[in-house]
Write a structure and sequence with these properties.
about 350 residues, alpha/beta, Cobalt-precorrin-4 Transmethylase, domain 1, Rossmann fold, four-stranded parallel sheet, 12 helices, about 20% strand, binds iron/sulfur cluster, iron
C-alpha cells in the first residue's frame, strides 16, 4: 500500500466500516524534536552542499527515513574509515564518542553534528562526574550507539548495566563515590527499578539533576499507559533497532495488552486483529507520520469504522540547528540558499 496523507476530516469521525471496530490514534506519537532536527540537518546539507553527504550510522533508527535520505544522496557508513579523506560527514542523533571525533579530525573530515541536544546533555554529565572523581554507572543497552558514545566520554571509569544482576555484580574503587546516568530512551519503569537497585547497593550514589530519559520517550510511554487498558491491541510503528519503539511495546505488554512492533502496515498479521474491536496505534520517536497514516488506512480497509485521535498531552518541543549548518546556510551561494528556503 502506498503511504498517503490522512486528511484531518478522516480523524475523529466515523468512516465506512463497523463502528464497533475502532482505531485509537495516540498523541503524542512519532517524530521527536531530536529526530526532526537530525533529518532536517541531512536534508539541508544535501541541498546546501550537494550529494554525496556521508552519514555515520543510521541518522535515526528507522529504515523508511534512512532509505528516503539515501535516495536523496546520503551515504550511510558504519565507520569513518569508509568516508573519503576530507569529505563531509554527519554524526547521527545518537551521538559519538570523543574517539570518533578525534578520528574525524585525523582524517580531515568536515563534520556536521546531528547529535540530539538531550543526548549531549548526558555526555556533559558523564564528563562532569568523571572530572569530579566518580565511578560512573550507565544504565542502558551496551550495544546501542548512544550508550557507546556516552561511555566513550569516560571509558576508564564507566560501567554499563542493563539488569539488576549486573548491578549486584558491580565492583567500584570507592562505593561512596559513584554516580549513575541512563540512556535517554529506556522504559521509565525499568529505569526506576534499576536506579532503586543502584541506590540499595550504593546508598550515597548521585545522579543527574533531571532524569536522562528524554521528554519524547516519557510522553509516548505515558500515552500508551493511558490508553492501553482500553484497547485490545497496541500497534507500535517503528523499526526493530529503535530503542524507544521497543520500549513502547513492552509498556503495553506489561499492562496486559497485546502489542506488536511494525515497520509498516504490511507487517500486520491477520491473526493479531482477528476478533479485535479496538486497536490503538502509536509510533516511536523515529517513525514518520506517513507510515502511521498508512496503518490507519490499512485498518480502515479491514472495517475499522471509527478513527479517534486521543491526545494525552500536548508536545511542542523544537531544537535549533547546529552552528555548522547555520554557518553553511549563511555562506552558501544564493542559489543553494534558495533551495533550502
Ligand atoms: S528520542 Fe529523545 S534523546 Fe532521542 S532524539 Fe528524540 S528527543 Fe533526542
Amino acid at each position: 500500500m502506498n503511504a498517503a496523507t490522512l486528511a484531518p476530516e478522516d480523524i475523529n469521525q466515523n468512516v465506512t466500516g463497523s463502528p464497533a471496530k475502532r482505531v485509537l490514534l495516540l498523541k503524542p506519537r512519532g517524530f521527536c524534536a531530536g529526530v526532526v532536527r537530525a533529518v532536517d540537518i541531512v536534508k539541508i546539507a544535501l541541498d546546501t552542499f550537494g550529494a554525496p553527504i556521508y552519514v555515520r550510522k543510521e541518522i535515526v533508527h528507522n529504515s523508511y527515513v534512512v532509505n528516503d535520505l539515501a535516495g536523496k544522496g546520503a551515504i550511510f557508513v558504519n565507520e569513518l574509515d569508509e568516508v573519503p579523506a576530507g569529505a563531509r560527514v554527519i554524526y547521527s542523533a545518537h551521538g559519538v564518542s570523543p574517539a570518533v571525533r578525534e578520528h574525524a579530525k585525523e582524517r580531515g573530515l568536515k563534520v556536521i553534528d546531528a547529535t540530539c541536544p538531550l543526548v549531549t546533555k548526558v555526555h556533559v554529565e558523564a564528563i562532569k562526574f568523571a572530572k569530579q572523581g566518580y565511578s560512573l554507572v550507565l544504565v542502558g543497552h551496551r550495544d546501542h550507539e548512544e550508550v557507546e558514545g556516552t561511555q566513550g566520554e569516560a571509558p576508564t571509569v564507566t560501567q554499563v548495566v542493563s539488569t539488576v544482576e549486573e548491578v549486584a555484580a558491580l565492583v567500584v574503587p570507592d562505593p561512596n563515590k559513584v554516580a549513575y546516568l541512563t540512556q535517554t530512551t529506556l522504559s521509565l519503569d525499568e529505569a526506576r527499578y534499576m536506579i532503586e537497585a543502584l541506590k540499595k547497593k550504593f546508598p550515597n550514589i548521585v545522579g543527574p539533576h533531571a532524569q536522562d530519559i528524554c521528554y519524547a520517550t516519557e510522553n509516548r510511554q505515558t500515552a500508551v499507559k493511558n490508553v492501553a487498558h482500553g484497547a485490545d491491541v497496541v500497534l507500535v510503528v517503528g523499526s526493530r533497532n529503535s530503542s524507544n519503539s521497543n520500549r513502547l511495546v513492552e509498556v503495553s505488554q506489561n499492562l496486559g495488552t497485546n502489542s506488536y512492533l511494525i515497520d509498516k502496515a504490511e507487517d500486520i498479521r491477520a491473526e493479531w486483529i482477528e476478533n479485535v474491536s479496538t486497536v490503538a496505534i502509536t509510533a516511536g520517536a523515529s517513525a514518520p507520520e506517513i507510515l502511521v497514516q498508512d496503518v490507519v488506512q490499512y485498518l480502515q480497509g479491514k472495517g475499522y469504522g471509527s478513527v479517534e485521535e486521543v491526545e494525552v498531552m500536548p508536545e511542542n518541543v523544537r531544537f535549533g540547528l547546529p552552528p555548522e549548518i547555520v554557518q553553511a546556510i549563511a555562506s552558501a551561494p544564493p542559489i543553494a540558499r534558495d533551495v533550502t528556503a
